[in-house]
Amino acid sequence: MSRYFAVSDVHGCDVALETLLTSLDLRQGDGLVQLGDLCDRGPDTARVLDLLIALGEEIDLRVILGNHDEMFLGALGRPGFRDVGPNWLAFGGRETLNSYGGRPQDVPEDHIRFLESAAGLVERGRDVFVHALIDPALPLSEQPPEALRWEKLTYEEPPPAEGRRVVCGHTAQSSGEPRVWPGWCCIDTKVYAADGWLTALEVGGDGGDRIWQANQRGDARGPFDLARFEDRG
C-alpha cells in the first residue's frame, strides 16, 4: 500500500533530511510533498537539493516554494521572485552560498530549475499543503503569494471551509513538536536550531496520521500519533 508524507522546512540541514528519508523507507508508489524553505541557515543547501532531485526520480515528489527559496532565486536574479538584496545574506543566505563555494554563478542550473518549478500549494484529498498559510476567506485559486510564503501564523486562524485541513511550515515551533489545532497542522520544528528537528507527517497511513522526526546530528525518533500534539485548551 502506498504512503504519503509531508516534510517541513529543511533549511539546508542535509544530515537531518537524509536521516529522515532513511527512517521513512520510501518506496516506488509512495508520495511526498516538501513544504518549502529548502535553503538558508543550515550548512548544505546544495546537498539538500541534490538529495531531493534524486528522490524525485524514485517517488511522486512535489515541492512547495518557501520564502527562503524565493529570496535565493531573487538573489540569483531570476525574474518574478522577490529580491531582498543584502538582507538575504543575514537571513541565512550566506550559508547557502557557501554550500556552492561562495559564488552565485556556480549554482547548478538544475537546482535553479528545481526551485523555479515549485508549487504555491498542493491539494490532496481534504488536505491543503502550503508553506506559510492560506486566507480561509479566499478560494484556493486566489491565494496571494504573501499569504502562501511570508505570513506568520497567529494560531487564531479559523478552520478552513468544507472540512479541509491546512498542513504548513514557516512558523517555527521552538518546542521541537508540531502544533495542531482545528483545521491546521504546523510541522516546522526549527531543524536548524541546536535542539531542533525536521518533521514528517505521514498522512492517513495504516496507523492514521503519524509524526516522524530527525535532526542534524543524525538522530531519529517516532513515529508518534499526531493526536498527541493536538491543542487541548
Question: Would you write up a description of this structure?
Answer:
This protein is of the alpha/beta class and 233 residues long. It has one domain (4-229): Purple Acid Phosphatase, chain A, domain 2, CATH 3.60.21.10. The chain has helices at 14-24, 45-55, 67-75, 87-99, 109-116, 145-149; strands at 4-7, 31-34, 60-63, 121-124, 127-130, 165-168, 179-181, 184-186, 198-205, 208-214, 220-225. Strands 3-2-1-9-10-11 form a six-stranded mixed sheet. The chain has a five-stranded mixed sheet with strand order 4-5-6-8-7, with no helix packed on it. GO terms for molecular function: bis(5'-nucleosyl)-tetraphosphatase (symmetrical) activity; phosphatase activity.
Question: Could you give a short description of this structure?
Answer:
This protein has 233 residues and is an alpha/beta fold. It has helices at 14-24, 45-55, 67-75, 87-99, 109-116, 145-149; strands spanning 4-7, 31-34, 60-63, 121-124, 127-130, 165-168, 179-181, 184-186, 198-205, 208-214, 220-225. The protein has one domain (4-229): Metallo-dependent phosphatases (Purple Acid Phosphatase, chain A, domain 2).
CATH superfamily: Metallo-dependent phosphatases
The overall strand count is 11
CATH architecture field = 4-Layer Sandwich
Largest sheet: 6 strands, mixed
CATH topology: Purple Acid Phosphatase, chain A, domain 2
CATH class: Alpha Beta
Low-confidence runs = none
Overall morphology: globular
Please work out how many helical segments DSSP would assign: 6
Strand content: 15-25%
Alpha carbon gap, first and last residue: 36 Å
Helix content: 10-25%
Q: Which structural category do the helix and sheet elements fall into?
A: alpha/beta
Radius of gyration: 17 Å
Mean pLDDT across all amino acids: 96
Q: State the order of secondary-structure elements, H for helix, E for strand.
A: EHEHEHHHEEHEEEEEE
Strand order of the largest sheet: 3-2-1-9-10-11
Number of individual domains: 1
